[in-house]
Amino acid sequence: MKPAHGQSALPILLLATLTCSCSKAPDSQRPGNPGNAAARAVRVAVVETQPMERVVLATGSLLAQEQATLSIKVPGRLHTVAVDLGSVVKKGDLLAQVDPKDYELRVKQSAAALAQARAALGLPLDGTSDTVEIEKTSLVKEAQAVLNEAARKRERLVELSKTGIAAPSELDTAVAGHLVALNKYEAALDEARTRLAALAQRRAELAIADKQFEDTSLRAPFDGAIQQRVAGLGEFLPAGTPVVTLVRTDPLRLRVEVTEREAAGVRAGQPVRLRVEGETNAVRGVLARVSPAIVEQSRMLIAEADVPNDGSLRPGLFVRAEIVTRERDAGLAIPASALIVFAGIEKVVLARDGKAAERTVITGRRGPVWIEIVSGLKAGEVVVIDPGNLRTGQPISVLDVPAPQTSSRSLESSGP
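^ that's the sequence the OP posted. Answer follows.
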């Protein structure tokens, strides 16, 4: 019985010895420790200072550069409509016209009255010059001749009355005749002036008739396209009734609202990039107009830019715009592929002494291949590109360490 008991105690003693030896192994040799893994080959990049664009983000809408609701100035029945929805027109093109017959007759009537007024002053029936010397009109010349004859007759009788040949009554008659002739001469001058004024009135009436005849036609005041047609053919239109709405779509007017906090850096002349829903390419423009005051109700600054349009943009589109306030603003940048985002936390992995080291960062502006680091890194530090699941303390083998250098390229920002 004793040998059996001694044989069973030996395995128990060996098991206890192995357990104690395992519990005393160093931490670096325990399974699952990053230090036990083989060094992972990684690519790295140096945190650099480079020029970036400083932009202000804003939202707004595209508006027509010009928009006008056009109407015919004179009443009449709509005789012609030459355009419809979407029609493209040039400045001066005929859009619509009311029946011009009545206004054409008024032009002829006014022209006849003008010719009559010219004839009354001894002018040719046709002509553009209405300059007249009143003293040379037939009416005044006739009165002048009568006055001269009365003056000579009075002078003769004055001389004859001195010698007693002419009776006093004859002299009185001559003096009275001279006075009457003088009054008729003054009346002739007044009549000539009245006829001259009537001529000016007839000339103005003809100009009004011509203008009304011209106003029977509605013409485009600028290049554009028809947005809306509101009157139908054959409809009688009182003066001022809207007929069509015309818009100019090239260039378009971009109107955005900038927050009060960022309004101080916005100036006319700054470049603007905008994107619309469904379009991948950015459209560029220039900030042309900035409001001098903040809107009190919304605490926003209104700014406008002129945007060239090749026909792909339409008024009314909602846009997101970037106003470039500074084109070369220095900042720390890393490759976009070096950033890790998990649960809203942004991190990078540094390469330090052959091991990975995680660090939380705060990012700012972003470009096509780079990201600005606002805090968490310093210039010259080395970050791992495409770190994947690297963890702090894991051995790494750097394939190539690029020399830090400041980029002189002006990079396009897509906003913070």
